[in-house]
Structure formats: C-alpha cells, structure tokens
Amino acid sequence: xxxxxxxxxxxxxxxxxxxxxxxxxxxxxxxxxxxxxxxxxxxxxxxxxxxxxxxxxxxxxxxxxxxxxxxxxxxxxxxxxxxxxxxxxxxxxxxxxxxxxxxxxxxxxxxxxxxxxxxxxxxxxxxxxxxxxxxxxxxxxxxxxxxxxxxxxxxxxxxxxxxxxxxxxxxxxxxxxxxxxxxxxxxxxxxxxxxxxxxxxxxxxxxxxxxxxxxxxxxxxxxxxxxxxxxxxxxxxxxxxxxxxxxxxxxx
Length: 252
Description:
Helix content is 46%, strand content 13%. By secondary structure, the chain is an alpha/beta fold. It has two domains: 14-145, Rossmann fold, CATH 3.40.50.720; 152-242, ProC-like, C-terminal domain (N-(1-d-carboxylethyl)-l-norvaline Dehydrogenase, domain 2), CATH 1.10.1040.20.
C-alpha cells in the first residue's frame, strides 16, 4: 500500500484538566492511558491560557469554584468547557459557547483507584457531545441528566455512596458491641446488593420488617445504644414502605 493510500491517522484529543485533586488526578490518569494528551493544573491557573491548544477543558474543582473560574475563561467556540460536578447544570459554565458536564457514578478515593474505577463506569452527561466522547473513550455508559434533574440525581448519588458509608459506620458500631467484626457482615451486604440488581429493591428485602415481625424490631431498638435508635427506626420505616406495611409505634 502506498503512503497515499494509507488511512489518515486521527490526532489524539487534547484535554486540559483544572484541579489536581482526586477527581482531576483520576480523569488525568484514565484519559492519558486511553491515548489522550493530558495537561493538568491546580486551581490557580492563568485563565487567559486555559483554552489554548486543547479540545476540552475539564474543571475538576469544588462546586462553588466552578462558576467563578468559568466566568474568567476566554470564550472559544473551538473548545468545550466541561465540569464534573454532579449537582450543577450547564449554566455555571457561561459564557462558554460549548458547554458540557460529565459526572462519574463511582467513588474516586485516590487518583490510582479512581482511574481504574472510571473505566467502564456509568456517567451522567449533558451538553456538548464531547461529554459522551469522554465516556466512550473510557468504555463507560452515559445517561443524560438535564439541568432540572441534576440536584435530585446528585442526591441519589450521595445516598448510594456517602450515606452507605454512614450506614456502614453504624453497622460497625453495633457489630462491635456484639463482639463480631465488621468484615463478617460484608458478604451479607454484597449478596444483598446482588439481589437488588437481579430481583429489584422490594423483592430483595428480607428480615423482620418483610415478615411483619415488629416485636423483633422493637427488641432490636431496645438493645441498641440510644444514639443508634433513631437511625434504626427511620430505616425500618423505609423498609416497610417497600412492602406496603403499616408502621406501628416503635418507641420502647
């Protein structure tokens, strides 16, 4: 095959990431390993040069810093300005003519683990098609979430991650009071999550609330440290809603 007949090589996409914390570092590692040209900076960056010589600027800064930083950038209709904030819409990126958001539904504990987690993850996207290009590069799954649904979406993400960790904190405290370590319960949790995925939330519910055994629930509450009781009551009531059971008086 002659050089004239050879297929043209596509130049790698160029991204400048602003914010070198866990999110920025994770995206930098993941996109660089996928062949993108990556430039990463801290938040203190010269706004007049941020959009120079790149296809995408990805703002990985705290939510409150996104709008002030975006407002200082030089508008360029050849460059997409995007953020990875779950609760924010596209309006915070004004006056950029091309705007996008790409929020990963994974926990980014550090750059190395985060980069691995980004590959194959679910992402909430909006705006310019460049957001879906990022997801495609990382072999992920994109779901469109508009500005009007962003806060509810992000609340769901917090429940799935942060509130789960808080619940595990309660599990650890209660388990240790019985002399059993947290690790003994982890397979039970994993199996429950698998059941939710395979059967649906309501069908996966087992235990005393699913059976309507409120006497056992009251005994649990009575045995718990007083500081743990309110959270247990609320979760028992939430479990009852799943199976349409009325909730009796649970004070002991």
